[in-house]
């Protein structure tokens, strides 16, 4: 009787040991992978959409794999997972290379413009702050009109001498009601 218990216990331990090592990952690695969130994909475009879709499929298959008990089905699901993960890695590398090329092109354009501007006129900042001096404001109904003046201390250009068209009397002007 003791012999049967010992043999059955030994057989159970051997069976558990062989099934746990069939996955090629340690128990700690499985535990860590279960609780660590998968990286999220940040970006827009068809490649990123495809990458998100692959992540969703991989997550679904991993859930099926963890619940499956039949060895043949587990093997099939594992093969599908490996294919999807390989496809995901290729797509991720393709996206990284594309982004790297875009960054290289942008940096080359910036460096070429910097070298050309250093030989010519120094470049002004793209967004310079302008100061506006307000002389007066007028509100008409719901609109605010601002009358801008020059810098204080700066002499204004002298007003031009009135010409014949400017010397018209106000009664002849088109802005007076009744005159058209």
Structural features, described:
By secondary structure, this protein is mainly alpha-helical. Among the domains are: 1-36; 45-104. The protein is 55% helix and 8% strand. The chain has helices at 2-20, 27-35, 46-67, 71-119; strands at 133-140, 143-149. Strands 1-2 form a two-stranded antiparallel sheet. Helix 3 (46-67) packs antiparallel against helix 4. It is elongated, with a radius of gyration of 39 Å. It starts with a helix and ends in a 31-residue tail after the last strand. The relative contact order is 0.04. The model has no long low-confidence stretch (mean pLDDT 74).
Q: Give helix and strand order, one letter per element, not per position.
A: HHHHEE
The main sheet orders its strands as: 1-2
- Report how far the terminal alpha carbons are from each other: 123 Å
Biggest β-sheet strands, sense, barrel? 2 strands, antiparallel
Estimate the global geometry from the Cα principal axes: elongated
Strand segment count: 2
The structure class reads: mainly alpha
Determine Rg (CA atoms, Å).
39 Å
Low-pLDDT residue spans: none
What percent of residues are in strands?
5-15%
Helix content: 55-70%
Quaternary state, please?
Answer: single chain
Mean pLDDT: 74
Number of helices: 4
């Amino acid at each position: 009787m003791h012999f049967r218990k010992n043999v059955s216990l030994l057989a159970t331990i051997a069976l558990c040991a062989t099934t746990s090592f069939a996955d090629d990952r340690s128990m700690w690695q499985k535990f860590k992978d279960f609780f660590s969130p998968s990286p999220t994909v940040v970006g827009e475009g068809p490649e990123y959409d495809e990458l998100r879709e692959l992540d969703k499929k991989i997550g679904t298959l991993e859930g099926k794999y963890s619940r499956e008990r039949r060895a043949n089905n587990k093997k099939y699901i594992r093969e599908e997972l490996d294919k999807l993960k390989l496809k995901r890695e290729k797509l991720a590398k393709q996206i990284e290379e594309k982004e790297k090329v875009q960054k290289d092109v942008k940096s080359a354009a910036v460096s070429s413009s910097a070298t050309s501007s250093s030989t010519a006129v120094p470049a002004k900042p793209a967004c310079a702050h302008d100061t506006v001096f307000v002389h007066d404001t007028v509100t008409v109904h719901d609109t605010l009109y601002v009358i801008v003046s020059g810098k204080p201390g700066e002499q204004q250009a002298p007003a031009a001498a009135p010409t014949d068209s400017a010397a018209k009397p106000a009664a002849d002007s088109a802005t007076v009601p009744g005159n058209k």
